[in-house]
């Protein structure tokens, strides 16, 4: 059940990112690039990516420290589970920051 939920979230996040990039591409490619909608979306995406650069590593660091503490106090059976959670947390944090970088690069490309 949990794996299906994670897969659903991954597909949803990927779809939303793709739709936002296509929307930004359409706005910048058309004649309404200077409209209020285009400039507002541009500012929104810039603010979200700048916010993501600060928040994602902080949350990832806090969760990793928490997982290391839980790993240290667990028995031999649970250590492997906590190791997997630590790896997942680090990889997810890196992936989220890279996603923000890609969105920021896409925005910068159209200016």
What is the topology?
Blueprint: H1 2-29, H2 36-72, H3 76-109
Helix pairs in contact: 2-3
Taking the alpha carbons of the first and last residues, their distance comes to 43 Å
Helix content: over 70%
Content of β-strand: under 5%
Alpha carbon gyration radius: 18 Å
Q: Which shape, going by the Cα principal axes?
A: elongated
Low-confidence stretches: none
3D architecture notes:
- It is a single chain.
- The chain has 111 residues and is mostly helical.
- It has one domain.
- Helix content is 89%, strand content 0%.
- The chain has 3 helices and no strands.
- It has helices at residues 2-29, 36-72, 76-109.
- Helix 2 runs antiparallel to helix 3 (76-109).
- The protein is elongated, with a radius of gyration of 18 Å.
- The termini are far apart.
List keywords for this structure.
single chain, 111 residues, mainly alpha, 3 helices, elongated
Describe what is shown at a glance.
This protein has 111 residues and is mainly α.
């Amino acid at each position: 059940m949990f794996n299906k939920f994670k897969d659903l979230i991954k597909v949803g996040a990927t779809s939303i990112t793709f739709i936002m990039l296509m929307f930004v591409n359409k706005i910048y490619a058309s004649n309404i690039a200077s409209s209020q909608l285009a400039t507002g979306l541009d500012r929104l995406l810039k603010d979200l990516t700048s916010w993501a650069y600060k928040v994602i590593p902080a949350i990832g660091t806090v969760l990793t420290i928490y997982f290391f503490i839980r790993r240290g106090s667990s028995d031999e059976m649970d250590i492997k589970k906590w190791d997997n959670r630590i790896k997942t947390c680090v990889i997810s944090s890196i992936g989220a920051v890279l996603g923000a970088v890609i969105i920021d690069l896409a925005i910068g490309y159209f200016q």
